[in-house]
Amino acid sequence: MGEGSGDGAGPKVAIVMGSQSDWPTMQCTADVLDELGVPYEARIVSAHRTPDRMYAFGKGAADEGFGVIVAGAGGAAHLPGMLSALTHLPVLGVPVESKALSGQDSLLSIVQMPAGVPTGTLAIGKAGATNAGLLAAAILALGDAGLSRRLQDWRAARSAAVAERPEDA
Ligand code: RP5
């Protein structure tokens, strides 16, 4: 599972997910980071199936050179909140769309954190994963003028691509 582009000098984004089955969603985070030239690593870290791996990752993430963690999980989605408890790094949670409850369970598992243990919570599914990547880039851009410029250019290009009038179907 992937390593993103970038010059390798600044902090990386960690994209972690509870299962291989989350990757089609979390790949949207990787895609937008690729577009912005932000380095990242993607890993499977499950709060339930690999708790020791989760603990080690959360405790070591800052020392590994990560600056932001994007954590996606579905169903009983405890991974983002548990990582927030283990690291001072910003954690952005992506509720993966679940089969049984369409991601409502994932969303509610992530969003209602107790005061003092903040976890950013994005929209359910691929839109949330994309926006988590953009937010991660925006956080890192606070200390990286080049990335800030690329992010502004990316946003301007998206705006320029919107037609002023609809075309006939
Ligand atoms: C969660 O359970 C994962 O984040 C995933 O969204 C969900 C289902 O996992 P699999 O049964 O597909 O491995 O822990």
UniProtKB/TrEMBL annotation:
Pfam families in the cross-refs: AIRC
Pathway(s) of this molecule: Purine metabolism; IMP biosynthesis via de novo pathway; 5-amino-1-(5-phospho-D-ribosyl)imidazole-4-carboxylate from 5-amino-1-(5-phospho-D-ribosyl)imidazole (N5-CAIR route): step 2/2
Statement: the UniProt record of this protein carries the keyword Cytoplasm: no
Domain (PurE): residue spans on this chain: 11-162
Record field: catalytic activity: 5-carboxyamino-1-(5-phospho-D-ribosyl)imidazole + H(+) = 5-amino-1-(5-phospho-D-ribosyl)imidazole-4-carboxylate
EC number, UniProt record: 5.4.99.18
SMART domains documented for this protein: AIRC
InterPro entries, A to Z: PurE_ClassI, PurE_dom, PurE_prokaryotes
Keyword terms of this UniProt record: Isomerase, Lyase, Purine biosynthesis
GO molecular function: 5-(carboxyamino)imidazole ribonucleotide mutase activity; phosphoribosylaminoimidazole carboxylase activity
Transmembrane spans: none
Record-listed substrate binding positions: S19, D22, R49
Xref: SUPFAM superfamilies: N5-CAIR mutase (phosphoribosylaminoimidazole carboxylase, PurE) (SSF52255)
PANTHER family in alphabetical order: PHOSPHORIBOSYLAMINOIMIDAZOLE CARBOXYLASE, PHOSPHORIBOSYLAMINOIMIDAZOLE CARBOXYLASE CATALYTIC SUBUNIT
Cited function: Catalyzes the conversion of N5-carboxyaminoimidazole ribonucleotide (N5-CAIR) to 4-carboxy-5-aminoimidazole ribonucleotide (CAIR).
Family to which this protein belongs: Belongs to the AIR carboxylase family. Class I subfamily.
Protein name according to UniProt: N5-carboxyaminoimidazole ribonucleotide mutase
